[in-house]
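Complex record, two chains
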Amino acid sequence: MRKGFFPRLAATGLKNNRQTYLPYFLTCTGTVMMFYNMCALTYHASTIQNSNLSSVMGLGMGVTAIFAVIFLFYTNSFVIKRRKKEFGLYNILGLEKKHIGITMFFESLYVYLGSTALGIGLGILFNKLVTLLLYRILNFDPNFQFEISPRAIVYSIVLFAGIAVANLLFNLLQVQLARPVQLLQGSSAGEKEPKANWFIAVLGVLTLGAGYWIALTIESPMDALAMFFVAVVLVIIGTYLLFCAGSIVILKLMRKNKKYYYKPAHFTTVSGMIYRMKQNAAGLASICILSTAVLVMISTTVSMFVGMEDVLHTRFPQEIDISATYLPGADFDREALLSYVEDTVTEAGRQTENLEVFDSLTVSTQREGNTFVSGSDSDVSSAIYLLVFLSAQDYTALTGEQVSVEDGEIYAFGDVFESREAADWESIEIFGNPFRLAGTGGTSPEMGTYAAYLAEVCYLVVEDLDAAVPVANAAQAEYGDLIDPFTCHIAFDTDGTEEEKAALAQTLSQIRNMGFPEAQEITFSSMELSRDSFFDLYGGLFFLGIFLGALFLMATVLIIYYKQIVEGYDDKERFAIMQKVGMSRREVKGTVRTQVLIVFFIPLLAAAVHIAVAFPILTKLLALLNLQNVSLFGVCTVCTVLVFALIYAIVYSMTAKVYYRIVYRRV
Amino acid sequence: MPLLEVKNLKKIYTTRFGGAQVQALRNVSFSVERGEYVAIMGESGSGKTTLLNIIASLDRPTAGKVLLAGEDVTSIPEKQLSVFRRKKLGFVFQEFNLLDTFCNRDNIYLPLVLSGENHKKMEEKLTPIAKKLQIDDILEKFPYEISGGQKQRCAVARALITGPQLILADEPTGALDSRASDNLLDMFSQINEDGQTILMVTHSVKAASHASRVLFIRDGEVFTQLYRGERTREAFYADIASSLTLLSVGGEEHA
């Protein structure tokens, strides 16, 4: 054959299949663009300097790459299904499969070169905007260096070349394996009515139910973290199974009910839906999962970002927190530490506010009745109790209240002591050390330092902290080095502007390197100094949520579009027949609309249910990240769902037009 | 009064870009009596299908009238057309036009369901028809599970179940092998004997030889017609064949 024949044949093939190829081309371009951007941001000079941000962006890049592989493979399978007929025709007209292969190679090459070049080009243009957005979110200096990232370009070229080759191999295999007659029938094959598979449907209900059960019943944030992915996987499996088998089972039950089924409004819809679900169940389930992912990502990251000040205040109840640890029984001089801090503050011209000074011993335990024991060998799921020992003197200093405790006694604060179970406790035992209960309830110290802990915190007031030394020794014997020794805390706010606060924090942070007698380790944390790294982390996650949300949304839109086209061609014939045997155009339109609406909005509805059920577990996960503002998260979630539904509806009305155009085209 | 009267039917198609005009039907007039079995023959492009589409109210004529039991089909408003088609006419197509999404029973019920019939009544109506057409054992199967002949019999059942005044068949044997064709034509004859009026468009001399009258169409006009009368089917077959030869070589009109 003449040189240049196949490249031209390939070009014609692409041109004649615009309706299928254009969206595919745009998908490739869009994905390349998104990947380039993610990649460029990850390797941007100012990102690399920042460890929080660069790990978040690295994560984003990985997700985008995995997504690109799956999604392009998925869309490619749509395209090849539609083209099989044409290849069959070529085959029958005398083109060998080898030649078809060459044609397909050129087609893939064109699409790859075109989409990658365009994608990178648009990516570079778009990059400026994206970087600006990211740095605006992060409060970075907007005079950043705009750069074209050679590394991102190379990575994009390589990744998408790999995907193109994999897709081409898949397509070649499809053509190679099929006989010409099969190729000709390619897109209309598989018309058999699906079987109602009760087993799979029940399995779907069970897996989804299990996922929901986990999400709804989990109590502690630690368990939520451990079980979240289990729940997610169960829900994904359950969604797929239910969409595939459950829908058919329900529809068949509807068909069995003759009174219901033989009504004009239900007759065509129910039977049509059975076929639709067979062809689209997986696609619809994917739409549902992607939508859920978009909703979860955006609502969580938005609420974290919006609630960042909350988080900061939860994490840092006071602007500056200094603690020094010392061994049980050591003669630590807390006045020396305190006077150093106060002098430094005064020297800087600042004043301390809300000063809290106390010594404590903190041990982590698990509970069996009124006995608190080591939690090292118990399972993770039972609750952890953090016991904080305070002296009566420090308690009074912190709260202004007085409690009377004598030697061998303990006055306890904490939910567990208010429970019915504890009503008749006269004493408690901690690591084998018995304490008489002097009393419970009253003004709890509620120290900020422990507010961010996920365990149940119990404050135990003893006459003198030395009374806790046996507990500390026993705990040390149990846990080895893990135990927090005795700690002296100094926490306070300061006056002044943010700059002044930051300057003071900077000066005070030197305390870490100073030696105090008997002090083991001195830690220093400041809200002002941490704010930037919080911004990097939460802002980065926020950006990532929006970015990936946009990416997944794009995927959802495209899956919907392809679905509509494929269905349009399938349904066209059916509706033509219905008109011939006496259905009016209006009735046909009504049926079409009902089916399209059901198919379209079921995934959205399911996604909304998923989100609603996931809400409790997500709340707990956010608590792990120090966001405890449930109502903020609730508002963010509802807003996200509403905005998403709006976008979804717009996409629906746009793609439905394409569908109707195909279906109603005069036969 | 004849059941169907076709008066001076004319149909002109204009090509898409408004260029040449194609006259599909020049001037067609004929009538069909109740209980008649009429076949319309003619070569491809002679206008048979156009004629059938107009009678079926699927297409509108440029001029002329179609009266079904005295009612002018061409002036029924668009909105009532599908109800009219559903209640008064039964269709049998060459390519069956059964829906793969329905089992055969539901395919046959389709027009009744659209008319809002009670499903018990539907069953009552279907039982005798299914028996006559020998499809009672394949009702629960799907169209893709049965043979072409069986499909066409289901399609006939769908046409009959509404008790239409006229059955319109467009090449009903066109997609069938000879045995299935014979079988189907026998059934058509049987249905006709039960009093059903049938109008069939066909290429096949054999199919036409089952009819009681054959109309020949050429270049958009009724060229000639043949009555079977008392002739045997074989003799009628021979006459139809010779008329067709005449039709194609372009002989003069004869009675």
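Note: Chain A touches chain B at residues 191-193, 258-259, 261-264, 267, 271-272, 274-275, 574, 577-587 (CB under 8 Å).
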